[in-house]
Amino acid sequence: MVHEARNQSTVTKFILVGFSEFPQLQAPIFLLFLTIYTVTVVGNVGIIIVRKINPKLHTPMYFFLSHLSFLDICYSSVITPKLLEILVVEDRTMSFNGCMTQFFFGCACVITEMFMLAVMVYDRFVAVCNPLLYTVAMSYKLCALLVAVTYMWGGLCSLIITYSLVRLSYCGSNIMNHFVCEYSAILSLSCSDTSFSQMACFIISAFNEMCSLLIILASYVFIIATVSRMPSKGGLCKAFSTCTSHLTAISIFHGIILLLYCVPHDKSSWLLVKVDTVLFTVMIPMLNPLIYSLRNKDVKETVRRLINSKLHSLHIKFR
């Protein structure tokens, strides 16, 4: 009987509040997020194209970076279009199945990206600590395996957490004080025992965060130890320059996760939660291509050549 009650979800759709408490800001917020989304898609697609057309970038580091860009496109596309929609239309509803689908893909992208960043740091560890064996150690087969494992693990973890939400009953209010189907917002609308879901989410989140951070910290400890023994200043600068972009992206990603889920929030302070979620869901996918491209000579050179060739072809066409 208990199991049947849990599966009977009387709520068939949710109403997303979004930023409706600030009606005068709806248009500016829409334009801001539309601009960010456009920059995100163009920037990340650009990273993927640049890697394809420049043979210099056919290395493990850029192989992982292109998958990070793909994840950012997917994550942003799962969240931002619905956010833009609820900013301009009066009907802010989302079906129960649509909400759970959005949560599943969003969660899968986050967990996959978490370990993709860890894999990228491991790649830098091998490049700095074993430069002569780098191409052998980071073979295409191993790189493909690491990427496949991160995708599968992200999907599996997300499936477990999503299942823990789907099996709950939602028979009370269907007004979700958020712009996205985020875990705590969904959980707050349940009218059944949420202990299993919370336990599953806590175990998976803690395990993933600790494992990814352990890989990152261990890799950087070895990188710093190796770099400190380098006799030449040139080698020292080159080693640090290859790691700076990764360290920046990792600091932003894990910093916002800690801000969103580990810093205590007043339960009535949903605005702060929304702002933190915006930073995580909208800003990070835009920042990653900027972080990696602005600090990389090969990427900037390829983009410059691509723009110049297009301008040259247009000049010839209209002569």
Which keywords apply here?
mainly alpha; disordered N terminus; 319 residues; 3% strand; globular; 11 helices
How would you describe what is shown here?
This protein is mostly helical. 76% of the residues lie in helices and 3% in strands. The protein contains 11 helices and 3 strands. α4 runs antiparallel to α6 (140-166). The longest helix has 34 residues, at 96-129.
Task: Produce a short descriptive summary.
The protein has about 325 residues and is mostly helical. The protein has helices at about 1-5, 25-55, 60-90, 95-130, 135, 140-165, 185, 195-230, 235-260, 270-295, 295-315; strands at about 15, 95, 175. It has eleven helices and three strands.
Structural class category = mainly alpha
Principal-axes geometry comes out as globular
Largest sheet properties:
3 strands, mixed
Mean pLDDT: 83
Helix/strand order: HEHHEHHHEHHHHH
Q: Main sheet: which strands, in order across?
A: 2-1-3
Distance between the termini: 79 Å
CA gyration radius, whole angstroms: 22 Å
Q: Report strand %.
A: under 5%
| Spans where pLDDT lies below 50 across 5 or more residues | 1-9
Total helix count?
A: 11
Number of strands: 3
- As a percent range, the share of helical residues equals over 70%
